[in-house]
């Protein structure tokens, strides 16, 4: 990698800065990341370029790496952050959020006082600057990972909002809200993909070009926010803080705003910067709702009488809908899902149901904000709500909601959600670093292996010397098409036949049947712990977990629960991996016998990609994944015979030993919001000896094997009869 000589004293500050950006770009850091850090350095070194340029900008590279390291720590704390984002509504807790506006002096701005919040540290004999919270000294160690985040922000008035924005950016895939009837999210982000250091965000819906223009305009119009001492969060503190409202109303000088000015404020401060994604809910609907809320507020403020309660009920039910989900909209407009005792009829206004209560034979359990008498608070209501909001129980980076619009079954049958594969008992897996050779890692790499102008490293070897992923975080199209072809037309591809097939041997140890064949698989290899690149390197996608908005839902076609995307997805996007217990082939066989007699099905996948490469495979090396009792969202993905929108790809992460690998699902084409996600289980509907009963397939595809098999059987019967 060539690093230019930059010691020409005749160069202007801007030219030197450009040179610094260029050098950093070459090692994988974009200008957007480097710019604020360079500003800090320039500030700390009192504009002395010589110190910054020394050793080919070593000090700058160190500071950028520190920044990246912090981002990685933040990733680890995402679950906490998610709660913090909610908790930040409590203004008392953001006392410690400090805004240091316009304190920096840079080559590009007027000089001002140096920020007292900067911490200097010696590295390679030089001062380098780190960002430090004013309260870091008192911070307990467990919270330190979240201190000292220093970022730039455009000027905004509301601090809590600003902090929310910050958290959103640092963890851009985290959906902090329960999946609402209408998803509100900022319509533009101030940061480019590289600043966020997460490639997939490029394809998220709603990143309009206006947002990009805004980003560039604001590059140096910055403030520094310091997030210090993120508070411990208890569930109690997730309540809306009404004390501020009461204080404001009780204070002298409080004046009730007019409806017009209230709506205008909502429009100016909220609707301009948020985008409603659900096609069923428009900004007009939101204004309607705000109007209702306002009227409710007025009624309470003026001690309204009982006659007005009916109105309030309808408002509060709308709020319930907003809070709980769009989930409860049955196609006929009936809205009743969460509360089976509560019969309501719906009338659609611009896609959002306005609800009238019908007499019910049983007491209503509907949620009502307006009438505390009406809603008996019950702990049982709360527990399932958490579950419905996030079936992953907080273990994933995103919440995954559950919704049933078609039957009375509220939740899927019990299983334990695990975000990563876990050994059941006998499986042998070793993630020893010593077993990873130089040819299977890139310890010499630095930054992002997918940076332009960087020659692909050893980690691209499995995929023919080219990385599997694009800089947008998608599987390269030709490679994806190969995987699709392997999955859809397996007979056109190579198979290997084991001498002693574990699947057959477990059925009949003495006289096993010949191997039926295993598809020769291609692998994607990701960078991992022995690699020198950073955690946000573009060649680490599956290991970073689910980032898209998913929902478990009841399918209308009687396939049981299924999984769908809430946002449009491009071709080649990572959805999730198949997660389950890692069991040996024998353990799986034994489970299947038990579940067969109990009529309880397991849905295993064989990790058989390497079974043919060695003879005498031990039982603890012939592994499978079983998501029946322990699993992730993948256990809800239904089967589709001929044209599923997901394809499974074997991914090597922790070990080059292909006895164990990850099975990751990627989109085979662009997928619309709310479309069900499906993959081909490769079921043999004719195999009557299979321990698992094949289901009656309702995939609906033209090439449905089950339907075609039935048709074949039917016409055969007709031929015989004739
Ligand atoms: C891995 S689970 C998928 C989630 C499942 N639908 C549920 O409710 O938990 C596989 C089971 O889903 C059902 N299923 C999946 N795909 C189907 C299809 N195309 N037609 C009918 N049932 C299907 C079958 O009952 C099958 O045994």
Give a quick precis of the structure.
This protein is α+β, with helices and mostly antiparallel strands and 722 residues long. Residues 1-8, 78-245, 303-383 and 718-722 have low confidence and may be disordered.
Describe it.
The structure is a single chain. This protein is α+β, with helices and mostly antiparallel strands and 722 residues long. It has three domains: 13-230, no CATH class; 258-389, no CATH class; 416-712, Beta-clip-like (Beta Complex), CATH 2.170.270. 29% of the residues lie in helices and 15% in strands. The chain is built from 16 helices and 25 strands. The strands form eight sheets. The chain has a five-stranded mixed beta sheet with strand order 10-16-17-25-22. Strands 11, 12, 19, 20 and 21 form a five-stranded mixed beta sheet that branches. Strand 8 (344-349) and strand 9 (352-357) form a beta hairpin. Helix 2 packs across helix 3 (49-76) and helix 4 runs antiparallel to helix 5. The longest helix is centred in the N-terminal third of the chain and has 28 residues, at 49-76. The radius of gyration is 29 Å and the shape is globular. The termini are far apart. S-adenosylmethionine is lined by residues 412, 559-562, 601, 603, 635-636, 638-639, 695, 697-699. S-adenosylmethionine (SAM) is lined by residues 412, 559-562, 601, 603, 635-636, 638-639, 695, 697-699.
Question: How many strand segments?
Answer: 25
User: What is the CATH C-level name of the largest domain?
Assistant: Mainly Beta
Bound small-molecule species: S-adenosylmethionine
When the domains are counted, the total is: 3
Helical stretch tally: 16
Helical fraction equals 25-40%
Biggest sheet architecture: 5 strands, mixed
Give me the CATH architecture of the largest domain, please: Beta Complex
CATH homologous superfamily caption of the largest domain: SET domain
Q: Report the C-alpha radius of gyration, rounded.
A: 29 Å
Content of β-strand? 5-15%
Assign an overall shape. Answer: globular
Mean pLDDT: 67
């Amino acid at each position: 990698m060539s690093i230019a000589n930059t010691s020409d004293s005749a160069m202007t500050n801007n030219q030197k800065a450009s040179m610094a950006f260029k050098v950093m770009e070459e090692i994988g850091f974009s200008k957007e990341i480097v710019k604020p850090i360079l500003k800090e350095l320039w500030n700390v070194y009192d504009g002395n370029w010589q110190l910054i340029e020394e050793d080919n900008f070593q000090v700058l590279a160190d500071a950028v790496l520190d920044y990246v390291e912090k981002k990685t720590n933040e990733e680890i704390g995402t679950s906490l952050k998610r709660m913090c984002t909610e908790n930040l509504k409590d203004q008392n807790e953001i006392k410690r959020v400090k805004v240091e506006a316009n304190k920096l002096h840079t080559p590009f701005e007027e000089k001002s006082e140096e920020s007292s919040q900067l911490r200097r540290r010696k590295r390679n004999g030089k001062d380098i600057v780190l960002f430090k919270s004013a309260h870091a000294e008192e911070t307990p160690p467990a919270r330190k990972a979240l201190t000292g985040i220093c970022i730039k922000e455009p000027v905004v008035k509301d601090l809590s909002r600003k902090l929310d924005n910050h958290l959103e950016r640092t963890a851009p895939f985290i959906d902090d809200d329960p999946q609402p009837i209408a998803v509100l999210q900022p319509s533009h982000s101030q940061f480019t993909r590289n600043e966020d250091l997460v490639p997939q965000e490029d394809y998220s819906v709603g990143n309009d070009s206006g947002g990009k223009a805004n980003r560039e305009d604001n590059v140096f119009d910055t403030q520094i926010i310091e997030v210090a001492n993120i508070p411990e969060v208890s569930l109690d503190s997730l309540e809306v803080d009404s004390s501020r409202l009461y204080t404001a109303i009780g204070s002298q000088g409080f004046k009730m705003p007019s409806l017009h000015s209230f709506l205008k404020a909502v429009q100016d401060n909220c609707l301009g910067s948020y985008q409603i994604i659900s096609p069923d809910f428009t900004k007009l609907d939101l204004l309607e709702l705000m109007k209702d809320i306002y009227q409710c507020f007025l009624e309470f403020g003026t001690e309204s009488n009982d006659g007005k309660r009916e109105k309030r009920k309808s408002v509060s039910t709308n709020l319930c809908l907003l809070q709980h989900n769009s989930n409860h909209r049955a196609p006929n407009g009936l809205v009743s899902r969460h509360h089976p005792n509560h019969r309501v009829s719906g009338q659609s206004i611009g896609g959002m149901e306005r609800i009238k209560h019908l007499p019910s034979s049983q007491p209503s359990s509907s949620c009502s904000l307006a009438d505390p008498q009406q809603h008996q608070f019950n702990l049982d209501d709360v527990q399932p709500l958490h579950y419905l909001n996030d079936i992953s129980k907080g273990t994933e980076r995103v919440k995954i909601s559950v919704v049933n619009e078609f039957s009375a079954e509220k939740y899927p049958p019990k299983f334990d959600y695990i975000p990563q594969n876990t050994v059941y008992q006998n499986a042998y897996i070793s993630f020893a670093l010593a077993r990873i050779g130089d040819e299977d890692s890139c310890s010499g790499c630095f930054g992002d292996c997918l940076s332009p102008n960087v020659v692909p490293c050893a980690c691209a070897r499995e995929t023919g010397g080219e990385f599997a992923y694009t800089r947008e975080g998608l599987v390269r199209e030709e490679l994806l098409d190969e995987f699709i072809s392997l999955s859809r037309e397996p007979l056109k591809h190579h198979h290997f036949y084991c001498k002693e097939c574990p699947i057959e041997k477990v059925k009949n140890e003495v006289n096993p049947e010949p191997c039926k064949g295993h598809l020769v698989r291609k692998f994607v290899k990701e960078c991992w712990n022995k690699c020198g690149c950073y955690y946000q390197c573009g060649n680490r996608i599956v290991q970073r977990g689910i980032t898209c908005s998913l929902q478990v839902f009841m399918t209308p076609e009687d396939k049981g629960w299924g999984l769908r995307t809430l946002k449009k997805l491009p071709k080649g996007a990572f959805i999730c991996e198949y997660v389950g217990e890692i069991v040996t082939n024998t353990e799986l066989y034994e489970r299947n016998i038990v579940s067969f007699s109990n009529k309880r099905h397991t849905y295993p996948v064989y990790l058989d990609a390497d079974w043919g490469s060695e003879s005498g495979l031990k039982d603890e090396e012939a592994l499978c994944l079983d998501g029946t009792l322990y699993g992730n969202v993948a256990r809800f993905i239904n089967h589709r015979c001929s044209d599923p929108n997901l394809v499974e790809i074997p991914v090597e992460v922790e070990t080059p030993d292909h006895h164990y690998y990850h099975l990751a699902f990627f989109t085979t084409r662009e997928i619309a919001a709310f479309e069900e996600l499906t993959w081909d289980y490769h079921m043999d509907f004719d195999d009557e000896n299979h321990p698992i009963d094949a289901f009656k397939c309702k995939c609906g595809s033209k090439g449905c094997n089950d339907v075609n098999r039935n048709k074949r059987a039917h016409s055969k019967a007709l031929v015989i009869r004739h």
